[in-house]
Amino acid sequence: MFKNYIRIAWRNLVKRKVFTAINILGLAIGFGSSILIYLFLTYHNSFDNFHENGDRIYRVVTEERRDYIDYEASVPPAFAKVFREDYNYAEKVAKVVSWENYQLNVGEGTNTKSFKEDVVFVEPDLFDIMTFPLADAIGTRSLEDPNTAYISENMAQKMYGAENPIGKTFLYDNKETIEVIGILKNAPKTSVIPEEIFISFGTLKKFNDFTADETWGGISSNLQCFALFHPNQNISQIEDVLTELPKKHRPESKNKHVYKLQPLSEVHFNPKYGGINPAVLWIFGVIGLFLIAVACINFINISTAQAFYRSKEIGIRKVLGSFKQHLFWQFLSETFVISLFAIGLGVLLAVLFLPSFNNLFELNLSMNSLLNYQFFTFLVVVLAAVSFLSGSYPGILMSRIVPVLALKGKLKHNDTGGSTTRKVLVVAQFAISITLIAATLIISNQIDYAVNSDLGFDKESIVMVGIPKNLEKVQLNSLKEQISNIPGVTKVSACLTSPGGSVNNWGTSIKYHNRPEFEEFSIQAKLADTNYLNTFDLSLVAGRNFFENNSDSIAEMVVNEMLAKKLGVSTPEELLGKQITANGGYIKATIVGVVKDFHDNDFTEEISPIFIADQTRWFDEIAIKTNGQNTKHTLEQIGKRWSSAFQGYIYEPRFLDERVAEQYETEQRYLSLSKVFSALAILIGCLGLYGLILFFVGQRTKEIGIRKVLGSNVASILTLFTVDFFSLILIAGLVATPVAWYFMEQWLQGYTYRTQIHWWFFALAIVAIMIITLITISYQTLKVAVANPVKSLRTE
């Protein structure tokens, strides 16, 4: 019986090639998009699921409670040691410090290879907490020893090629020689610790005093603490116990710490602590369902529209003994065959577009990861669901046709049913497209506002170049002078980091003038030379710039207007001459100037209180303002001066405007994806519209001929077909507008500085759908409208 259903289904599909092709292509696009989304969701849900004791691994995080709550995926450097020695909740405790983009040199002389990699300094207990198995090692050595490292098999291949890396060395940051004492098996990239170079924690002291020391004075976002707890621990109770630590070790601080235990399985999914927002994954999943739903709507609309033309076939089948259930399964079989072809084409489309998808999200997803039973289960479930949902309604509708009316040719279009349902489904289809277009416009408008607004500082034609730490002032001034003399360079400043798009944020508590206690809020330090204000065009609203500092202590500083607001000072002038104590008392300086506020964070966060002061030993970058002419040559000349001053270091210039734009990289990706999905939804919808108009034009060919004989022109005939669709689009717009407005309003709530949602976003989306619909239906309609009415009247 089933074999017979398939054979007949195949004959019917071949007979109606155009409609079959439209249905297959629409479903294939939906399937292909869903497969890519499935890959994306599977990738994110696989994070940190390879650790043997994953259910007992926790990361310790901090809620910093000042005038607001700041969430840090870190703890003070001293926490790990105290928690390990004073409490017995965990089997192992380890802290790790991750550093990005540091230079490594392998080899000697002319054979030296230089490149930059992310590294992590680790306490050896980490390898008892997490599953990073060794492939090879020196048996008598461990990461307890300074200047030792484990590297992954992939990194060993990159650094040493086919040579055995055990016992070999590399130069870290052009300063310290590190010996490779172990090779780790390649771990999945879906890890909270993605680095592939693990350097002993004892080495860190030579590079960073703060994170290496046992201090409670502050938090570095580079430092994380992991613990493997004993089985069956009461986590809430442990968190209650941890409230004792700030009282004991930070009793006078206004920055109140609350330490929380975050399960390893939640690390990747908590946006407060740098993880991905789970809502994003839900949105992806819903969009995948939308695309398949739009394709299913096409199928249902076209199938029900064709019911009138298949009525005689159904009447004959019923006369010959077919029951309703037989007809139902016959139409379901046709749907299954179409879905089967569509899912095969969908897999092919997913393979073709996977590289572009990877580029968009900077991933390395592979179709090979789909060769498992979960993916085949997903395909089977989707195939069954689409076949049933798409085929059930047309099957039920056509199985109800009265055979007597069908065979006598007295069956009217209303007798086949489905007209109202078609309209509802078309409205749903249009509403989805309008929602996606409106969302795209709103996201694009917000990103454009954030990137192109006046940020309060100059970011155009400014090149940021990293420099080695702890430079002598004489060497730094010499380099600045050489760069200043390059044609095309207009301004030069050395600093810790730029005003916005910062790569080195440094927050600290402050005490203002004669106030006895530290303030509730923290302040951002922008350490820089005296050219900083001029280079970035920061405007003074009161006082003057600070003078050059030639000592180890800071005497003068410039602050921003936000500090005055936070301190409750009525005018910027009142700050002048007042003293600020910061960094635990190591900084005591007088305010000599106040600059206009500038955006140091992205637009999701409020402008921070800021001070700018001169302290050479903390400088990490040089900011170089160019005239924007012959930029390539100017960068080459800067590179020559820079490389001459810092031999053996890699020269990597970065434009500041690009770095600022990178703050919205995630939003840019979502915008690109929104554009793609909107285009796909429209494309699938257009296929369905084309199929419907093909049917309707064929159905009303005689009517068009009669209208032309009676004097109707081409425009009136085109209007005849478009007015119904335009009315449905307007209804869809009324449905989509409040839905899109609500969700976009929720999204914009994440921005402190945001645009407004304007009515014309939705009007433009509705007009766009109208234009696309008009283009879609015009060809077939005009083809019949301009035809000889004699041919139209002869059409059966």
From TrEMBL:
It is found in: Cell membrane. The chain crosses the membrane at residues 21-41, 279-302, 327-355, 375-403, 424-443, 676-697, 709-737, 757-777. Residues 20-243, 431-628 form the MacB-like periplasmic core domain. Keywords: Cell membrane, Membrane, Transmembrane, Transmembrane helix. InterPro entries: ABC3_permease_C, MacB_PCD, Macrolide_Exporter_MacB. It comes from the Bacteria. Residues 286-401, 676-788 form the ABC3 transporter permease C-terminal domain. The keyword Cytoplasm does not apply. It is a multi-pass membrane protein. PANTHER family: ABC-TYPE MACROLIDE FAMILY EXPORT SYSTEM PERMEASE COMPONENT 2, MEMBRANE COMPONENT OF TRANSPORTER-RELATED. This is ABC transporter permease. It comes from Flagellimonas iocasae.
